[in-house]
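Hi team,

Filling in the usual template for the complex we talked about on Friday. All components are listed, including any nucleic acid strands or ligand strings, so the model treats them as one assembly.

SUBMITTER: L.P.
PURPOSE: interface mapping
COMPONENTS: two
RESIDUES: 593
SEQUENCES:
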Amino acid sequence: MSAVLVVARGVFKESVRDRIGYNLVFFAVLLMAASILLAQVTAGQDVKIIKDLGLAAASAIGMLLAVFVGISLVSKEVERRSIYSLLSKPITRPQFILGKYLGLTFTLVVNLAIMAVAYYAVLVYIDWQTPALTSQGWEAPAADPRLLKAFALIGVELMLVTALALFFSTFSSAFLAAGLTIAVYVIGHFNTDLKNLSSLGNSPVLIAIGKGLYYTLPNLTLLDVKADVVHAHTVSGQQMLAGILSAGLYIGLLLTASIIVFSRRDFK
Amino acid sequence: MDVIRTEGLTKHYTSGFWRPRPYAALQDLTLKVAQGEIFGFLGPNGAGKTTTLKLLMQLIYPTSGIAEILGKPVGDVSVRRRIGYLPENPYFYDNLSAEELLVYFACVFGYGPKDGRVRAARLLDEVGIGAERKFQLRKFSKGMVQRVGIAQALINEPEVIFLDEPMSGLDPIGRREVRELILKLRNQGRTVFFSSHVLSDAEALCSNVAVMAKGRLAVSGRLADLLANQTRAWELVVSGASQHVIDRIAPRLTSVTPLGGGRYSLELPATTPPEPLLNELVTTGARLVSLNPVRETLEEFFVQRVNATNADRFVESRVRDRSAS
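RESULT (copied from the run log):
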């Protein structure tokens, strides 16, 4: 087994042991509680709210995991000095970074897949509980397969957030890396607004900063199709491909930068 | 054959945010360690021992100089297949068991999980924690983690083993066991390079030592040679000497200690040859019981050399400051 896969497997095992699976219990309880409560107060619209809530929760939980586990991948190893033993073995620093990234990505994908299964289970349950007359009025069936498109893009977004967290943690403390990653995540979701800052004022500095951030930071709105799939709007393959390709390019750049920074770093 | 070689190895850091100033953690270290020896790398805290080991493991990069292990630059990944390293105060993944950690490291070396488990079981037994191998590391005491650290350094049956303060955190029994383990490794033909500030360990184990102080090499060589040249006195034990004779020679001695039963322990300065005094005592009817050079212990030698190096550096820095001003 290559050193990259050994490190990746180690990350997965450590994450599972670190009880990150508790988030899945939280997700399942949230969905079930919401479906029971909403059924009492809404008139047949609860399925849309559950769809929306479930996707938002999966995205938020995944993002928090990607940030907080992602930053700990490197910074915790450096701060606790467990990295000394590992890097003295036949493993290069690029292999270490790639192994950590693959390990966490795999953990997050497994986590997201389990959430998707729980999500569909709740939707099937709601469908089964709802009278046929009511469900005929829905824009889309409860267990709409198109919802999987949103899950797929959430997965890509988590891969991007993980790469961001990993990059920041190669040169800063865990606390700072978390702050920077969350900041980029938030700005990334308002990316289009940055381009249009000129409509808000005439300051050339502000406009230049807005445009600079627009072109440098990832455009996460391309990966956000949650509202579209919930309201049964079409999400084309081209739209998905654009999101996946731009995220893939950004992930590649971030990993390359992480490897360059990490390879030059002294572990004092 | 030299298995470890450094030449002019130097590491500078900068300290200070507004006015960064260079700080020499290691200065111009030239060192050779031969195959199959136990090499003691000694020095007080902050002497540059851990910096040197980190440079050899390429955890930090040198400012200048060369470092080679087994004839190859330290950056060569193939070298790391043949070495083992125990960091100072090691820390490992809390959620893994000792066995899982060792299997993980074995897999990094390319061994399969099954082979890794066999190696882990043997090594954990050898360092005395075989019974606890399934426990998560978070439940281990400092001494137990140290033992796991030693075991992981040996997972690949290395030719050269680097141990940074290997006795740290161990109880007296643990220290003795580790000493025996180090001797066993040497007897198997492996080279052990260990840093320590516990001199009794070095005295008990090492054939060669290097003493570091303030980032510089103060002295290095065979331990026996270093201490042999450090005779600080001669001790004569005689019997049957009269009080009158003892009083007569007393001004030439540094101390006279009556041992009872007409025996005396006489101490001569190292600069005074003992033979004339011995002849004089014998002609008065005294008998020689023993004559021994009183050598410095490693501790005395260490303190003397470290203080001398520190004083040199102090003078150097004063001269530098004056010329700068």
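MY TAKE: Residues 3-264 of chain A form one domain. Residues 93-129 of chain A form the longest helix (37 residues).

Thanks, L.
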